[in-house]
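Figure 6 in text form: structure in, sequence out.
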């Protein structure tokens, strides 16, 4: 599993309307400014203080990568934060797209690096699972369960109930249901079947035909063919969002607390 931070497109659907890029184009590293590093560090410290104060083992952590308010959303990307036994710091396990390409991998990052990916807003969503669920998630996050659920073929708009593609948040959702279920859940097909049985409902994103055409022609990390015909005809696409994960955890009674943390100070 890669251990370095990668730059990449996350669930930033607002990018559909921006100027097109060449498919599979390699992205140039954007230097992190001292101001950005300072903001990421301060927000990471706020998050760690909250986690430590609540004596958490595990948390689901969301961030604001791009402005997706036009879709009724705020958070674009989430990962699972855990503290390995005997370690003082926190680690984030999450899935990242490779610079706009059609591939993604799992990464383990520190809290500060999680907020260094050029965020639209320095804000964090902190979802604390119930104690019993944290006890299950902690060893799963530190272990290899996530690798067994990883589909390298990436689509920003991946349909939640097929195996063809996967995005960052759909990987996280499948991880949560696999680690947390009372019955054995092995592999993506089993995870998706369990999600249906457990009543998971994805959000629906409306995308105009012109935006779909631009994404199909110019962006390697967008695919629409895995969605049902009805969704492709209507332009309303089911997708796993951070908000839908939070909603489902609450409905499942797996969520103990939910907090939003904005960066304190300039």
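Output sequence:
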């Amino acid at each position: 599993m890669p251990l370095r931070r990668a730059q990449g497109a996350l669930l930033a659907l607002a990018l559909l309307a921006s100027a097109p890029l060449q498919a599979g184009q390699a992205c140039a590293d954007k230097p992190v400014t001292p101001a950005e590093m300072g903001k990421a560090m301060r927000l990471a410290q706020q998050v760690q203080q909250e986690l430590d104060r609540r004596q958490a083992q595990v948390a689901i952590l969301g961030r604001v990568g791009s402005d997706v308010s036009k879709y009724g959303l705020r958070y674009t990307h989430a990962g699972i934060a855990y503290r390995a036994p005997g370690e003082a710091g926190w680690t984030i396990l999450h899935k990242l797209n490779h610079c706009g390409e059609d591939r993604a991998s799992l990464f383990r990052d520190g809290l500060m690096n999680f907020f260094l990916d050029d965020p639209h807003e320095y804000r964090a969503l902190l979802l604390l699972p119930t104690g019993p669920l944290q006890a299950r998630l902690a060893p799963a996050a530190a272990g290899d369960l996530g690798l067994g659920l990883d589909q390298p073929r990436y689509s920003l708009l991946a349909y939640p109930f097929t195996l063809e593609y996967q995005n960052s948040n759909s990987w996280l959702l499948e991880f949560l249901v696999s680690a947390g279920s009372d019955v054995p859940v092995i592999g993506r097909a089993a995870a998706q079947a369990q999600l249906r049985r457990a009543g998971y409902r994805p959000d629906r994103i409306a995308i105009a035909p012109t935006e779909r055409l631009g994404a199909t022609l110019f962006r390697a990390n967008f695919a629409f063919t895995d969605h049902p015909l009805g969704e492709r005809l209507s332009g309303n696409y089911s997708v796993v969002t951070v908000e839908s994960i939070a909603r489902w955890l609450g409905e499942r009674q797996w969520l103990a607390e939910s907090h939003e943390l904005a960066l304190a100070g300039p």
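Caption detail: The beta strands are 58-64, 77-82, 91-97, 104-110, 121-129, 203-206, 236-239, 255-262.
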